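Course assignment 3, question 2. Fill in each field.
Student: A.L.
Task: Predict the tertiary structure for the chain below.
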Amino acid sequence: MSRFSLLAAMRHYAGRIRTIRNEIRTERMLGSLSPQMRADIGWPDRYGRRHGFDG
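Answer field:
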C-alpha cells in the first residue's frame, strides 16, 4: 500500500467518524426539544424515512 493511499484511507475514516459524531450531536439536540416542536419539524418521522426505518 502506497503512502498516499494510506493517507487517503485515514482521511476517509476520519471523515466518517466526524459524520457519525455530527449525526449523534444533531439527534441529541433534536431529542431535547419539546414534543410540539419536534412534531412541527417532522422529527423523527423524516429521519426514519430517510434512514429506512418504519417508525
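Instructor remarks: The first helix runs from residue 3 to 31. DSSP finds three helices and no strands in the chain.
Grade: pending
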